[in-house]
Amino acid sequence: MDPSLSLYDQLGGAEGVRALVEAFYPRVQQNAVLAPLFPEDIEPVMEKQYMFLSQFFGGPALFSEAFGHPMMRARHMKFTITDGHADEWLHCMAHALRDVGIQEPLASFVLDRLSGPARHFVNSY
């Protein structure tokens, strides 16, 4: 890890974040817990995730420029999200990070950073 670089840059910038999203969503679509939450046409979701993660990791504010303030919890309230969903989401992301070659300690740091939002979206117990 290079603390002088943003996570966005450490992940490989636009290409790296795009690769991560492209590795992540096939896992989500094959996950029995997560797949029902997502539409069959996953491309628009992937694009929004790419835009959000770019911004979240310190890159360009693509999501905010296109859609306004992320307000991610509010955007996810229409879905029932449990701790189990958050666990599965993080599990898929851990595998996607590995799939695109993100090494430790960066992979764990990214997962830790994403665990806050993943847990924040939980709205059902």
TrEMBL record:
<comment type="similarity">
    <text>Belongs to the truncated hemoglobin family. Group II subfamily.</text>
</comment>
<dbReference type="GO" id="GO:0020037">
    <property type="term" value="F:heme binding"/>
</dbReference>
<dbReference type="GO" id="GO:0005344">
    <property type="term" value="F:oxygen carrier activity"/>
</dbReference>
<protein>
    <submittedName>
        <fullName>Globin, protozoan/cyanobacterial family</fullName>
    </submittedName>
</protein>
<keyword id="KW-0408">Iron</keyword>
<keyword id="KW-0349">Heme</keyword>
<dbReference type="Pfam" id="PF01152">
    <property type="entry name" value="Bac_globin"/>
</dbReference>
<keyword id="KW-0479">Metal-binding</keyword>
<dbReference type="InterPro" id="IPR009050">
    <property type="entry name" value="Globin-like_sf"/>
</dbReference>
<dbReference type="GO" id="GO:0019825">
    <property type="term" value="F:oxygen binding"/>
</dbReference>
<dbReference type="InterPro" id="IPR044203">
    <property type="entry name" value="GlbO/GLB3-like"/>
</dbReference>
<dbReference type="InterPro" id="IPR001486">
    <property type="entry name" value="Hemoglobin_trunc"/>
</dbReference>
<dbReference type="GO" id="GO:0046872">
    <property type="term" value="F:metal ion binding"/>
</dbReference>
<dbReference type="InterPro" id="IPR012292">
    <property type="entry name" value="Globin/Proto"/>
</dbReference>
<keyword id="KW-0813">Transport</keyword>
